[in-house]
Amino acid sequence: MNLTHKKLTPSKVVTYIVLCFWAITTLYPFVWVILNSFREKGLIRKDSFSIPTAGNGFTLDNYATAMDRFDFGSAYLNSILVSVVVTIVVVILAGLCAYGLVRYRFRGRGLLYSLIMAGMMFPVFSTIIPVFRMEAAWGIASTGNRWLSLLAVILPQIAGNLCFATIVLMGFIESVPIDLEESAYLDGCNVFQVYFHIIIPAAKSSFATVAIFSFLWSYNDLFTQSFFLRYPKEKTITLLLNEISSQAGVNYGLMAASVVLIVIPVLVVYVCLQKHIIKGLTAGAIKG
């Protein structure tokens, strides 16, 4: 058996050094936060770089204080509910829209595609005021009703993610061989059967990628939520972190513990679905 050894060229060495440096600078801040979340608050400013051990500043009081002072359960529920609903609706609508634009030719198709592209060019900051006034006129914003307020956040988040998701899915659906669909039509399938049994399985990595990014963007959104969610029972996890940062002051231990508690769902989602993210992005780079 002949084993081929790749030569370590100077360019590869430089690339590895840059990547290692980037990884360290990216991961170290979060490691620092985790370490100091278990450190007594009075010791963080004196020694924030060592590993806390029993008898040397290690404590769980920061987590106990965070759970006691702030309602993480309700905030988690609100954030997960908003993010899951946004993700499901975006994937369904973007998938159907992308399939229709790719496989059908109809009057106004070019205009519709141009509008979708234009929708990605307008930042949320430029539309938040008219959106807020429109939803207030509908009676779902600033009502004090928890579920209506969450709906008021869900709708603009769906609109904000829909254009990007549609463009991404169009690129993947275009790569699916049309022969598969023609065979399904010959076997008597209708358009919805073709979509759910041919298109979705063939482009599942792209759907997974869109779903993951939609969830993370919705979960981490602070700007939109700060406009529509104003009562304690409506707060999401990002609003809770904003509140903690304003109340905790120099209590860095409490802030570190709160950050760790808030980031946990994001890490779980990423760790469980990282293969889909990498596969989807790689496939997009090849097929696009």
UniProtKB/TrEMBL annotation:
Transport among keywords: yes
Topology term for the membrane: Multi-pass membrane protein
Pfam families xrefs: BPD_transp_1
Xref: InterPro entries: MetI-like, MetI-like_sf
Localization, UniProt: Cell membrane
Predominant localisation class: membrane
Any single GO BP term: transmembrane transport
Domain ABC transmembrane type-1: 76-273
Keywords, ordered alphabetically: Cell membrane, Membrane, Transmembrane, Transmembrane helix, Transport
SUPFAM superfamilies: MetI-like (SSF161098)
Transmembrane regions listed in the UniProt entry: 13-35, 75-99, 111-132, 147-173, 194-219, 252-273
ATP-binding is among the record's keywords: no
GO cellular component labels: plasma membrane
Family the entry assigns: Belongs to the binding-protein-dependent transport system permease family.
Protein name per UniProt: Carbohydrate ABC transporter permease
